[in-house]
Amino acid sequence: MYDAVFLDPKDISDLPKQPGVYKFHNNNGDIIYVGKAKNLKNRVSSYFNKSSNHNRKTIRLVGEIDKIEIAIVNSEFDALLLENSLIKELQPKYNILLKDDKSFPYLCITNEPFPRIISTRKRIARNGTYFGPYASVRAMNNVLELIRKLYTIRTCKLNLSDQNIKAGKFKVCLEYHIGNCKGPCEGIQQHDNYQKDINQAAEILKGNLNVPKQHFKLNMQQAAEELDYENAQKYKEKLELLEKFHSKSLVVNPKITDIDVCTIISEEKSAFVNYLRVKNGSITVTKTIQLKKKLDESEQELLLLALIDLRKLYESGTEEVLTNIDIENLPEKFHFIKPQIGDKKKLVELSLKNSLFFKKEKLNQNESSKIKELRVLKQLQNDLRLKELPIKIECFDNSNMQGTNPTASMVHFKNGRPKKSEYRHYHVKTVVGPDDFASMTEIVGRRYKRLKDEKQEMPNLIVIDGGKGQLSSAVKALKKLNLYGKIPIIGIAKRLEEIYFPEDPYPVHISKKSESLKLLQRLRDEAHRFAITFHRQIRSKNSFKIDLEGINGIGDKTIDQLLTHFKSPKKIREASFENLRNVVGTSKAEIIIKAFKQKKED
């Protein structure tokens, strides 16, 4: 934990000259940027120094700062760790995106009398010992496949307690008969013998291949001396399997043992960081990530943030890090080296090759994605007989449940992709009761009246979620604005995926396999999702507002402040006293916490 202090931007002269983390809040109370500093006063002051050559994004950030929150820590390294965790937790608008490791695969040796080795994406410490995470499922499966070829470890989920085995509850299965298991379920294999295999497998998972290699080599020699050539051959084959696996990840110099390699290639808008983990002469981890720049961050800033994240993910504690850039003002606990010659230089070059390959693949993916987008849009243009390529498409949907809180949504796709900054929610204002047709007329009219009044660019295609009735209602709004015939408009009916055109009683059927129909379905489904989500929020907020209105000392202004800051009633209920206090003050936060507690008890 750390102590946080809040300051007005005018009071930056009061900042301490100590290491720490700073958070910039906007006037809504949202955290828009998190940064670290060796000297808080110097670093934060630099944002407000008019002589500094800030880029446009930094100038925009500074213009949004309403409040500064600082946390003093013991060292620059602690500040770096705290900054990393806060960025992952808060995902501020102006910070680069750092994701957590929840989706990465692990291998686990379970806590059971006869342990299993299983793959999982969840780490629950009490369930066993975890190894990884692995950069990909393929890499994890390669290790698991090797272990299963070398050792006879059970794959069943039976509860092999001494009591169950002695009671004869289980019978050996096919895995025993084909030689993949030695039958611990019937007591054919004893626990000590089974545990030796598990211990050997654990060494492989740790990256210590020398231990199992030595084991198989000694057993092979012993079997040969005893003229047991069949078993000697089996041990030889297992030894060769290990050698082959090891050779695929052998470093230039096997004497290089415990070391990290981290390199960066930077562009104008993004950077590519590769991380290699070298242990016992082998590369045990290789991972490349892309970081999108937000404030023209330096290569050093980006590399340090990524390195902290990757080392935490892959549980590295080594101090020595090889890299391709000069690191100034080194944080303690790191010893950065930019090698010029030799095997370490070759490792850096290998890491850079990974970064360059990843960058090339990303660019190729983007290029092929653009080609596909253009192909789909051309197909849609042909299927709907449009005069222009439908670069901009807008889709509308209504949502009301049992006639309450009528709302609507509009989603905007550009080049076949959602552009969420252009999405719009609507409260239906002029329609009483559950009248979807009148609601559609209202929202379509409101949308394009505004675009027309503000002289903004119109879409190339309008899509209405619904059949002839909904489409006719939208057309009515366009005619009133004198836009009918100037913007193509269609309706898509859910049941048979029929496409309706204005004033045409017969629908058009596009092939179910057509990419253009899939694009229209995506539009329709996204509009429906957006409308339903908004409607649920409105109902939830309304019911929550009624709950809060019953609390003495809490008025509409306070309720609106809470909903604006926390976005949902659920997040308000889950908020800590500190978070509530930051938004509405100490006395109101105490009232709200007390009321929530009382309601739970009731």
UniProtKB/TrEMBL annotation:
Residues 265-478 form the UvrC family homology region profile domain. GO terms for molecular function: DNA binding; excinuclease ABC activity. GO terms for biological process: nucleotide-excision repair; SOS response. Keywords: Cytoplasm, DNA damage, DNA excision, DNA repair, Excision nuclease, SOS response. It is found in: Cytoplasm. Residues 17-96 form the GIY-YIG domain. InterPro entries: GIY-YIG_endonuc (IPR000305), GIY-YIG_endonuc_sf (IPR035901), GIY-YIG_UvrC_Cho (IPR047296), RuvA_2-like (IPR010994), UVR_dom_sf (IPR036876), UvrABC_protein_C (IPR050066), UvrC (IPR004791), UvrC_RNase_H_dom (IPR001162). The keyword DNA damage applies. One of its GO terms (cellular component) is cytoplasm. NCBIfam families: uvrC (TIGR00194). The UvrABC repair system catalyzes the recognition and processing of DNA lesions. UvrC both incises the 5' and 3' sides of the lesion. The N-terminal half is responsible for the 3' incision and the C-terminal half is responsible for the 5' incision. Belongs to the UvrC family. Interacts with UvrB in an incision complex. This is UvrABC system protein C. It comes from Marivirga arenosa. The gene is uvrC.
